[in-house]
Each structure stands twice: as structure tokens, then as C-alpha cells.
Specification:
With about 160 residues, this protein is of the alpha+beta class. The chain has 5 helices and 7 strands, in the order E-E-E-E-H-E-H-E-E-H-H-H.
Length: about 160
């Protein structure tokens, strides 16, 4: 089975918003995982009206705000869960629809609403390689770097 998710690469000037995830909440009880810096992203739920509603719900949960403007859709990040996660989640793989967004709010208002996230931070674009550890996420970022920096979509 495939888990569908949404996520955002969120720009503010020459920085990108990252969240530090240390728990998986989509299991019967929260599951501790190795803390990693990542883009805000998470599963689409049955009661989400559409993909943008899912995106803004997820962003609100992980950052505490909906003060974002969608610039465009970047594509998908796809990966297989490790065997232990497959068993706990009930999904073999995940397909995450990623969007490029602009942050419109005040940085001081950023406060996660879920215990899944321990920190929220804006990171300079040229420091993303140091922070991103998940291979699929890092590759996706690098493959879309031109569009991310310019905000111009040619598709």
C-alpha cells in the first residue's frame, strides 16, 4: 500500500524553513525516530477536502501557522519505508507531493502544534546540504534548486 503525503519547501528571502522531526504520529502510539531536519510534510487524511487543504493543515500542525503563499508544485518525493516502519504504519512506500511556498508571517509566531516536531528554523539555502540527511529529500532539493531559488516555473 502507498501512503500519500504533502509537503512544502518554504522560502523567506534566502532561507528555507526546516522542522526537526523526532516522532512518527501516524501509528497507534507515537513512535520515536532518530531526529532529522526535514521539510514540513505529512500524510493526507481522509477528511482533507483536497491536496491544498491537506498541505495547509499539515503546515499548520508542524509550524503553527497557515501564513504561506503557494508559488507552485515541484513534483513528488517517493521512497520505500524500512521493514519495521512498514509493519507499524501499514504502508510499503510513500509518495509526497511537494510544493514551493513563500512564508508571509512573522518568524516569532512559528510554534509546532504537534509533539512530532521539536524545532522549527530557517536555514540559509547554501547550508541545506549540511542539514538534510534523508537521501530522497536531499536529492529532490538539489534537483529543484534552480526553481527554488528563482521561484520561476517553466512547466
Amino acid at each position: 500500500m502507498i501512503r500519500y503525503a504533502v509537503g512544502g519547501i518554504i522560502k523567506s528571502d534566502d532561507t528555507i524553513l526546516l522542522v526537526k522531526k523526532g516522532k512518527v504520529m501516524d501509528t497507534e502510539k507515537p513512535m520515536e525516530v532518530k531526529p532529522e531536519w526535514d521539510f514540513p510534510k505529512g500524510g493526507v487524511k481522509r477528511d482533507d477536502l483536497n491536496i491544498q487543504e491537506a498541505l495547509f493543515r499539515e503546515l499548520d500542525e508542524e509550524t503553527g501557522t497557515r501564513d504561506f503563499h503557494v508559488i507552485g508544485e515541484l513534483g513528488t518525493i517517493e521512497f520505500e519505508f524500512p521493514a519495521a516502519m512498514q509493519e507499524k504504519l501499514g504502508f510499503e512506500r510513500q509518495v509526497t507531493h511537494m510544493f514551493l511556498l513563500e512564508f508571509l508571517g512573522e518568524r516569532a509566531q512559528l510554534q509546532p502544534k504537534t509533539e512530532e516536531i521539536s524545532e522549527v528554523e530557517f536555514v540559509k539555502i547554501d547550508q541545506m546540504d549540511e542539514r538534510l540527511k534523508l537521501v530522497e529529500t536531499k536529492n529532490f532539493f538539489q534537483n529543484n534548486l534552480g526553481v527554488i531559488k528563482s521561484g520561476i516555473f517553466l512547466r
